[in-house]
């Protein structure tokens, strides 16, 4: 039926495959085995825009691309080229939404396959998705932003998106989506979070005005939205020029509120890390110069902001403290007590965060900071990033070992004036390093 030259018959067939592609795994496998993926790709090239065939075919491919194995089959059947062709040339909003959704799903499998890189390397793909973030249709903008978020996890794609005008487009999208759906807000903030991993992009996002809408999105009551906004602000705050922009634009009270009130441990964790970056002393010189994003000075009570930030960073860290358990661990030389504490402290989602060598070096340096609050926060972060089983734990352990962190950690664990939390966190990080050296965790 899908191969029929009759438009109505082809539409019904494509619609049937779209319906079958939703839900149970056996239906998805049945489409794959029956050669349905290749048929759907062929339909995209056979029928012109304006027919219902294209939207149905793209929608079915989008559903199938969400499955890891099927996503590879979609790529092998020429699906990436077909979907990018739609994204570049079609003017029908329903088709564009499904094409962008399909590309987002193809790029969502991370290290499981190379589709993410393949989509980015398809000529015109990134440019088309950047352009679709400016669509008048909210659904199209949402799916395009979601695709760019997924694609930004690839280093090469991240820079190519920026080259294609992605920073400016996504900052504009964040500025315009403050009253839009939660899904669009999350994806717009998430795409900026992904792009801001690199220094050039992070600084460009701040320069283009990205700080203000991210602060606004960080005030959302929806956890998914304020969590992604917090992630983007965390990356931006690594650079002093952006930290100053966050302070000047009222970001400290927003981050303090997230740090203390969010129902998401990840949002609270990233808000605390953002505040720690902002007030570890590196912003002071920039703040004294008084440079702002508009080129004029703003009167900000930085010392008051610093005290507020440190107060709530400390409160955040203490929410993970159990005096009785910590006291037992401190008096014990065995690994069992530390393992018990580590299990309680673990934020599972933090295992998905990947830090650069510069970020790990900054956390190590913060272990020597005059502020005991910041030292405890840095040790807590290193604990999260090195817990065995975390997606990037081995990467972080390697960076710590290359930086000679063990000596600093031993000092932090034994410092007479350090709070018990900082000492326990440092000891657990040392334990994590030893566990990784001993071999893979089982």
Describe the structure.
This is Protein ARABIDILLO 1. ARM repeats lie at residues 35-79, 78-113, 124-166, 165-210, 209-251. It comes from Lolium multiflorum. This protein has 442 residues and is mainly α. It contains 28 helices and no strands.
Question: What are the key terms here?
Answer:
442 residues, mainly alpha, Leucine-rich Repeat Variant, 28 helices, 72% helix, globular, ARM-like, ARM-type_fold, Protein ARABIDILLO 1, Armadillo
- Cα radius of gyration in angstroms: 24 Å
Total helix count? 28
Name the helicity range: over 70%
The number of domains is 3
What would you give as the CATH superfamily of the largest domain?
Answer: Leucine-rich Repeat Variant
The CATH topology annotation of the largest domain reads as: Leucine-rich Repeat Variant
Query: Could you name the CATH class of the largest domain?
Result: Mainly Alpha
> For the residues shown, what is the average pLDDT?
89
- Tell the overall outline: globular
Low-confidence stretches: 291-299
Q: How many strands, which pairing sense, and closed or not: the largest β-sheet?
A: none
Label the CATH architecture of the largest domain. Answer: Alpha Horseshoe
Distance between the termini: 51 Å
Q: What structural class is derived from the secondary structure elements? A: mainly alpha
Beta strand %: under 5%
Compile the SSE list and pairings:
Blueprint: H1 7-20, H2 25-33, H3 36-46, H4 52-65, H5 68-76, H6 79-89, H7 93-106, H8 115-121, H9 125-132, H10 138-151, H11 155-163, H12 166-176, H13 182-195, H14 199-207, H15 211-217, H16 223-237, H17 240-248, H18 251-261, H19 265-278, H20 284-289, H21 302-318, H22 323-331, H23 335-345, H24 357-366, H25 372-386, H26 393-402, H27 405-414, H28 420-438
Helix pairs in contact: 1-4, 3-4, 3-6, 4-7, 6-7, 6-9, 7-10, 9-10, 10-13, 12-13, 13-16, 15-16, 16-19, 18-19, 18-21, 19-21, 19-25, 21-25, 22-23, 22-28, 23-28, 24-25, 25-28, 27-28
InterPro entries: ARM-like (IPR011989), ARM-type_fold (IPR016024), Armadillo (IPR000225)
Protein name: Protein ARABIDILLO 1
ARM repeats: 35-79, 78-113, 124-166, 165-210, 209-251
């Amino acid at each position: 039926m899908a191969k029929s030259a009759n438009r109505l018959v082809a539409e019904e067939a494509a619609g049937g495959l779209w319906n079958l592609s939703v839900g149970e795994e056996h239906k998805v496998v049945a489409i794959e085995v029956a050669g349905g993926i290749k048929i759907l790709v062929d339909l995209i090239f056979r029928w012109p825009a304006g027919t219902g065939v294209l939207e149905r075919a793209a929608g079915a491919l989008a559903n199938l691309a969400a499955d890891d194995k099927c996503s590879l089959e979609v790529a092998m059947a020429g699906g990436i080229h077909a979907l990018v062709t739609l994204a570049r040339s079609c003017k029908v909003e329903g088709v564009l939404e499904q094409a962008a959704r399909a590309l987002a799903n193809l790029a969502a499998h991370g290290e499981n396959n190379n589709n993410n890189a393949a989509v980015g390397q398809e000529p015109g793909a990134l440019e088309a998705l950047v352009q679709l973030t400016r669509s008048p249709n909210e659904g199209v903008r949402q799916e395009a932003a979601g695709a760019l978020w997924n694609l930004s996890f690839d280093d090469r794609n991240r820079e190519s998106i920026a080259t294609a005008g992605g920073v400016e487009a996504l900052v504009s999208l964040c500025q315009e989506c403050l009253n839009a759906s939660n899904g669009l807000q999350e994806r717009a903030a998430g795409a900026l979070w992904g792009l801001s991993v690199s220094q050039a992009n992070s600084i460009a996002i701040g320069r283009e005005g990205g700080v203000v809408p991210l602060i606004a999105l960080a005030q959302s009551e929806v956890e998914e939205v304020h969590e992604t906004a917090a992630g983007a602000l965390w990356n931006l705050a690594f650079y002093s020029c952006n930290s100053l922009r966050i302070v000047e634009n009222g970001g400290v009270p927003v981050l303090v509120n997230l740090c203390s009130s969010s129902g998401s441990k990840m949002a609270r964790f990233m808000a605390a890390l953002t505040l720690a970056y902002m007030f570890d002393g590196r912003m002071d010189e920039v703040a004294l110069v008084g440079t702002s994003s508009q080129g004029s000075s703003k009167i900000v009570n930085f010392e008051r902001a610093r005290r507020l930030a440190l107060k709530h960073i400390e409160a955040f860290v203490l929410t993970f403290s159990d005096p009785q358990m910590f006291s037992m661990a401190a008096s014990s030389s065995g690994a069992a007590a530390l393992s018990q504490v580590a299990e309680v402290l673990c934020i599972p989602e933090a295992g998905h965060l990947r830090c650069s060598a510069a970020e790990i070096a900054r956390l190590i340096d913060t272990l020597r900071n005059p502020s005991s609050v910041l030292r405890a926060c840095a040790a807590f972060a290193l604990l999260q990033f090195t817990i065995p089983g975390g997606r990037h734990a081995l990467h972080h352990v390697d960076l710590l070992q290359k930086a000679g962190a063990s000596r600093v950690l031993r000092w932090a664990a034994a410092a007479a004036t350090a709070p018990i939390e900082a000492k326990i966190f440092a000891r657990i990080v040392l334990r994590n390093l030893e566990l990784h050296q001993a071999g893979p965790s089982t």
